[in-house]
Write a structure and sequence with these properties.
single chain, 80 residues, mainly alpha, two-stranded antiparallel ribbon, 3 helices, 45% helix, elongated
């Protein structure tokens, strides 16, 4: 049986960051503590960058579109 134990702690957080955390918590219908915990957990994960010819690529969004040459060309042509 495993469980996650939580601990109460006092942190000094910049006002604008706390405002953003509270907005996210309200949107997700959860607590600011849960949002901060999730963001910390995510930020502490090992870096999962993919490399192409020794050049790091941008991280992929879980439900993001696949960027293909055709998509890039179509977007470039829209500007003309």
């Amino acid at each position: 049986m495993s469980y996650v134990q939580s601990m109460r702690i006092t942190l000094d957080i910049d006002d604008e960051l706390l405002l953003t955390v509270n907005q996210i918590a309200q949107q997700r219908k959860t607590t600011a503590g849960s949002v901060v915990s999730a963001l910390l957990r995510e930020s502490l994960q090992p870096n999962k960058l993919e490399y192409w010819n020794r050049v790091p690529g941008l991280p992929r969004r879980p439900n993001g579109p696949v960027v293909t040459t055709e998509l890039v060309n179509r977007l470039l042509n829209e500007d003309e």
